[in-house]
Amino acid sequence: MTSSERINQLTDQLNHYNQKYYQEAISEISDQEFDLLLKELEKLENEHPDLKREDSPTHRVGGTITKEFPTVVHKYPMLSLSNTYSEEELLEWDERIKKVLTDRPYEYICEIKFDGISLSMTYEDGYLRKGVTRGDGTQGDDITTNVKTIRSLPLKTSKQAEKLGLGAQFEIRGEGFMPTKVFERINEDLIAEGKEPLANPRNSAAGTFKMQDSAVVASRDLDCYVYQYLSEDDHFKTHEESLLALKKAGFNVSDSWKKVSTIEEAISYINEWSDKRHSLPCATDGIVIKINDYAQREELGFTAKSPRWAIAYKYKAESKSTKLLGVTYQVGRTGAVTPVAELEPVILSMTTVKRATLHNADEIERLGISIGDYVFVEKAGEIIPKITAVDEQRSSNELFRQKVEFVKNCPACHTELIRNEGEAAWVCPNEKGCPPQIKGRIEHFIQRKALDIDSLGEGKIEILIENGLIEDAADLYSLTFDQLLGLEKVHVDELTGKARKVSFKEKTVENILKGIEASKNQPFSKVLFGIGIRFVGQTTGEKLADYFMNIETLQNATFEQLIAVPDVGEKVAQSIIDFFKDEDNLRFIEKLKVAGLQLEAQNVVKEVEGNALEGMTLLYTGTFKNYSREELEQKIAANGGKFVKSLSKKLTYLIVGESAGPSKLAKAEKLGVKMISEEEFEALVSA
Ligand SMILES: NC(=O)c1ccc[n+]([C@@H]2O[C@H](COP(=O)([O-])OP(=O)(O)OC[C@H]3O[C@@H](n4cnc5c(N)ncnc54)[C@H](O)[C@@H]3O)[C@@H](O)[C@H]2O)c1
Ligand SMILES: [Zn+2]
């Protein structure tokens, strides 16, 4: 291939990856591979400047703006950072700094490079007025309402802020991120709903910040580490001063930064954090080294794409080679069969890895792995271990190498697996008789977000099934004390060999029965989620409960009626229809009805408490300490008030809960609607 052809190819490829990454929050290749290709293009362009294309990704910041949000032109451009994976290049960069500063002394501030999305926040008269994405560097998306859901970002600066020298007009920049815990929680939910989990916290954060529904954004507990202060006036002389002032003024500045005076010290900082960073609450991908003194920064200046006074050192994704001992298969609640690599234990990013996901049959094919091979394991997005390739060098000496072939039959019930068109997963169609599917459905039913019977956790369901006491979740409601007392089983962890005995003693049994009884009070929406209709997650469960009010109406709903519900698409609607066509499912629902579960929403007024809200219309936003949505609506009705679904001038009160939707608040403010807190509402009804 000629240089010209290669330049064209790389330009097209990289533009494509940029488009995917910034527009759709999808990584088709790893960051490291991306950076390698970009370096190659840079090098070729330097050798052949005449061949450099106008749309080259080396010219500009990679991001874009969207049509979904208003566009804001940045007062100061938001650039990228030049990056490197090697110490050698850091030393070269340091040499260039020395040259420009003609050997005058300088200091570096070393910071962790948080892996989320760049945000710019503008404060005017002390108020947070704007939150904007980096976009293409010149202009970004106005996502103020979403940014305002970040609790660590003051909506108004403290009185101290001005004294600290921040002034009333300034811009701050930071990395908006999704805490690892939230990322894991969302993925658990997605898996429970039979959907694809998200690849990594960065992409999840990027996707969430650009959502239209800020109530959903608020539920995801996004956060932001602030790392830059900008203003018209010279408030600070150094970066250090600004960080200290921001922190004192209540901004979320991570304490991990450090001031050093040589590149060697910066390299020590890099080494120090290479493992320690995994204990931080969010994903990180490197270290940023910045000149401390603002005057020196000015001398050093910028390229079109990044400042010359800073550089990012990126950690290579940690990859190790270990032996593939075998492949096991897990059958999920929905019957999907996932292959899992069993590995000789190896330490990656501070944790011992013994298993890695192989995703599906296509992935096994792509990797071409054999049992006995040495394989490279990597932590993708720093979280889920995966196998990237066979370590041919080490594997070639192995005598025992047996090609991995995806199973043809269900590892649990031996039914022949099927694959639906357009789907990657092989599925066991024996929905009714396949043990892990049955167990999975019951475990789904008892989880916290559904019927919340946590006294049945930790392998107890398995024992009940094995003793023939339950066949589905509805059977839980006919269990008796005598049936349960004395049951026991020793669970042995396959990997560690550690044994754990679960036994049903008196106290345990009492707790279990109590938990089962209490679950009868769980609202209809949770029951709907718990019965496990495919694609009906927690939120969809709530929307369906709100809309249809009881199980019969839902059961009789037509396809058209179903897709009229917010959040319900064709796939979900069809799945609901299929569910209620099945005789066994109908019998299951019937059993739940007999057991006394909540199969209708409770906002029918059962009892009149008073008339304190007579003639008033009320609406709420956010979540509440003492009420679920249904309970709050019931409370309004029980006190003579009218709950309405939309915000208007005529509304008497908007009850504002925690993580209230900022767009709703802004609208209410504009309309002049009176807002009250949960406490004020309670005072009102008990008056
Ligand atoms: N996998 C893919 O398909 C794909 C595609 C496009 C880009 N990428 C990745 O994204 C990179 C380009 O993204 P980029 O331009 O945002 O660069 P970058 O993420 O490498 O570095 C710049 C960004 O770092 C962030 N940052 C985090 N902590 C910081 C701190 N303490 N101080 C200053 N900044 C901090 C800021 O948001 C800043 O905009 C590429 O190098 C590549 O690794 C990957
Ligand atoms: Zn099966």
Q: What labels describe this entry?
A:
Helix Hairpins; OB fold (Dihydrolipoamide Acetyltransferase, E2P); binds zinc ion; five-stranded mixed sheet; EC 6.5.1.2
Q: Do you know the CATH topology of the largest domain? A: D-amino Acid Aminotransferase, Chain A, domain 1
Describe the sheet with the most strands. Answer: 6 strands, antiparallel
CATH class of the largest domain: Alpha Beta
Portion in beta strands: 15-25%
Domain Cytochrome c: 391-555
Coiled coil: 27-54
Family: Belongs to the NAD-dependent DNA ligase family. LigA subfamily.
Active site: 113 (n6-amp-lysine intermediate)
Describe the structure.
- By secondary structure, the protein is an alpha+beta fold.
- The protein has 26 helices and 25 strands.
- The strands form seven sheets. Strands 12, 13, 14, 16, 17 and 19 form a six-stranded antiparallel beta sheet that branches. It has a five-stranded mixed beta sheet with strand order 2-11-10-3-9.
- Helix 25 links the parallel strand 24 and strand 25.
- The radius of gyration is 29 Å and the shape is globular.
- The model has no long low-confidence stretch (mean pLDDT 90).
- The site of zinc ion has 8 residues, from loops.
- The site of nicotinamide-adenine-dinucleotide (NAD) has 24 residues, from helix 1, helix 2 and strand 3.
- Keywords: Coiled coil, DNA damage, DNA repair, DNA replication, Heme, Iron, Ligase, Magnesium, Manganese, Metal-binding, NAD, Zinc.
- Its cofactor is Mg(2+); Mn(2+).
- This is DNA ligase.
